[in-house]
TrEMBL record:
<dbReference type="InterPro" id="IPR018094">
    <property type="entry name" value="Thymidylate_kinase"/>
</dbReference>
<keyword id="KW-0808">Transferase</keyword>
<dbReference type="GO" id="GO:0005829">
    <property type="term" value="C:cytosol"/>
</dbReference>
<dbReference type="GO" id="GO:0004798">
    <property type="term" value="F:dTMP kinase activity"/>
</dbReference>
<dbReference type="GO" id="GO:0005524">
    <property type="term" value="F:ATP binding"/>
</dbReference>
<dbReference type="GO" id="GO:0006233">
    <property type="term" value="P:dTDP biosynthetic process"/>
</dbReference>
<keyword id="KW-0067">ATP-binding</keyword>
<dbReference type="GO" id="GO:0006235">
    <property type="term" value="P:dTTP biosynthetic process"/>
</dbReference>
<comment type="function">
    <text>Phosphorylation of dTMP to form dTDP in both de novo and salvage pathways of dTTP synthesis.</text>
</comment>
<dbReference type="GO" id="GO:0006227">
    <property type="term" value="P:dUDP biosynthetic process"/>
</dbReference>
<keyword id="KW-0547">Nucleotide-binding</keyword>
<protein>
    <recommendedName>
        <fullName>Thymidylate kinase</fullName>
        <ecNumber>2.7.4.9</ecNumber>
    </recommendedName>
</protein>
<dbReference type="InterPro" id="IPR039430">
    <property type="entry name" value="Thymidylate_kin-like_dom"/>
</dbReference>
<keyword id="KW-0545">Nucleotide biosynthesis</keyword>
<dbReference type="Pfam" id="PF02223">
    <property type="entry name" value="Thymidylate_kin"/>
</dbReference>
<feature type="domain" description="Thymidylate kinase-like">
    <location>
        <begin position="8"/>
        <end position="198"/>
    </location>
</feature>
<comment type="similarity">
    <text>Belongs to the thymidylate kinase family.</text>
</comment>
Length: 215
């Protein structure tokens, strides 16, 4: 494909939303090719409906395998409708979460198996892998403290409400993925100030996208 696929990953409370709000406009201003920002779950009409179902705090009875399948279904629709067409058009696609999230959250966090979830998503994506993944790393205790400090109880989604040991398992899986895929995943210390995290992230992106960068 002509475009470049970049994903952002991190445990809850890592600050992905805040970083993306600063970084994407910089990319848009400096790259010679169009930039498309999107997210998972969601990013397409059907995928957004699935997102609502997955994250609804009222759906406490959802089975972990059902959750994993729904994430994969949302991802498939998003891929077909949004990601692949944008890449074919030569765009830089910046996606908030992708397969690594499912491996970490459902595979490790829910305990249904990282390999099994990886296989399910390989089927859904037909093996599409990001060219670069920026992983914003933060300990579970720090991430959850940030969430508790900035959200009212009514704003918590299903995953935010999980206990710290769940989020510890998620982070451990992310660290394993980062160690196993050093050619793709670049880790940024998200315990730093937002300014520093954004500066480090932009440095990573500028290096990876040097062929497209213009002042």
């Amino acid at each position: 494909m002509a475009g470049v696929f970049i994903t952002f990953e991190g445990p809850d409370g890592a600050g992905k939303d805040s970083v993306l709000r600063r970084v994407v406009p910089e990319l848009t201003a400096h790259l010679r090719v169009p930039v498309l920002e999107t997210r998972e779950p969601g990013g397409a009409r059907i995928s957004e409906h699935i997102r609502e179902l997955i994250l609804d705090p009222a759906n406490t009875e959802m089975d972990p395998r059902t959750e994993a399948i729904l994430y994969a279904a949302s991802r498939r629709q998003h891929l077909v409708e949004v990601i692949r067409p944008a890449l074919a058009a030569g765009k830089v696609v910046v996606c908030d979460r992708f397969v690594d999230s499912s491996i970490a959250y459902q595979g490790a966090g829910r305990g249904i198996g990282e390999d099994a979830v990886g296989a399910l998503n390989n089927f859904a994506t037909e093996g599409l892998t990001p060219a670069l993944t920026v992983y914003l790393d933060v300990p579970a205790s720090v991430g959850l403290a940030r969430i508790n400090a900035h959200r009212r109880d009514t704003q918590f989604d299903r995953l935010d409400q999980e206990k710290e040991d769940f989020h510890d398992r998620v982070r451990a899986a992310y660290l394993r993925l980062a160690a196993d895929h050093r050619d793709r995943i670049v880790t940024v210390d998200a315990t730093q100030t937002l300014d520093q995290v954004c500066a480090d992230t932009l440095a990573v992106l500028r290096t990876h996208l040097a062929a497209y960068w213009q002042e």
